[in-house]
């Protein structure tokens, strides 16, 4: 059996994509990123994928296209890479079951907040605002499975707490969150992609 095949869905900068690609190349994750799919032609992650020699697909939503119709096209693009794992790393569109039913049990999402907290967009800024208001002293990051249409919700694969130091800057807090994400994502994928005892067995003698 070959190394697990990871397809990464991105919408923007792709720093987490880069962390995963680098960790695969360094042998810290026993898998290969075989494809990158973006919904935005300006996503810098596409430049990163090109630089790493990884095949890309751009799936831009058409005006008036239903979410289900888009997700069917997206699923076709992802399926063309024959993935073992589908990683949402800064993917900023909500997925419907039209997508998720095609990849049961293998869709993994990264979110810059702790389980059950701050779902949706601008989670880092919202955590910072809550800390300034005296309502929190830490936030965090998580990686979880995506079984259904719940937003940034699903069985947790890993999480890390990140302190919010309001004597510093939002920029520094954001950097701390992203550093924690890069480390956690590599750790979780390394575990998911580790060979099982069955994989390591040779053919029957
Ligand atoms: C990351 O912070 C990721 O957790 C977040 O988008 C950023 C993408 O950064 N995702 C969400 O907020 C999902 N709700 P990147 O493009 O540099 O990897």
Describe what this molecule looks like in 3D.
By secondary structure, the protein is an alpha/beta fold. The protein has one domain: Rossmann fold, CATH 3.40.50. It has helices spanning 15-25, 44-51, 67-79, 97-100, 123-132, 170-192, 197-200, and strands spanning 5-10, 32-38, 56-58, 85-88, 107-111, 138-145, 156-163. Strands 3-2-1-4-5-6-7 form a seven-stranded mixed sheet, with helices on both faces. Helix 1 links the parallel strand 1 and strand 2. The model has no long low-confidence stretch (mean pLDDT 96). Glycinamide ribonucleotide binds at residues 10, 12-16, 45, 89-90, 110-112, 121, 123, 152, 181.
In short:
With 205 residues, the protein is an alpha/beta fold.
Figure out the total of helices. 7
Indicate the percent of residues in helices: 25-40%
Mean pLDDT: 96
- Alpha-carbon Rg, integer: 18 Å
How many strands, what sense, and barrel or not for the largest sheet? Answer: 7 strands, mixed
């Amino acid at each position: 059996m070959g190394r697990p095949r990871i397809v990464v869905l991105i919408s923007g900068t792709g720093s987490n994509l880069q962390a995963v690609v680098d960790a695969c190349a360094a042998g810290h994750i026993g898998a290969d990123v075989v494809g990158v799919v973006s919904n935005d032609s300006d996503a810098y992650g596409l430049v990163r994928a090109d630089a790493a020699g990884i095949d890309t697909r751009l799936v831009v939503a058409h005006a008036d296209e239903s979410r289900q119709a888009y997700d069917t096209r997206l699923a076709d693009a992802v399926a063309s890479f024959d993935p073992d794992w589908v990683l949402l790393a800064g993917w900023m569109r909500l997925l419907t079951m039209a997508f998720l039913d095609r990849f049961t049990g293998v869709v993994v999402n990264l979110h810059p907040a702790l389980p059950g907290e701050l779902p949706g967009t601008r989670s880092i800024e919202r955590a910072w605002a809550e800390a300034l208001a005296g309502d929190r002293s830490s936030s965090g990051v998580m990686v979880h499975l995506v079984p259904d249409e719940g937003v940034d919700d699903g069985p947790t694969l890993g999480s890390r707490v990140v302190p919010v130091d309001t004597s510093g800057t939002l920029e520094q807090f954001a950097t701390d969150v992203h550093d924690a994400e890069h480390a956690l994502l590599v750790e979780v994928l390394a575990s998911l992609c580790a060979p099982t005892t069955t994989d390591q067995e040779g053919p029957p003698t």
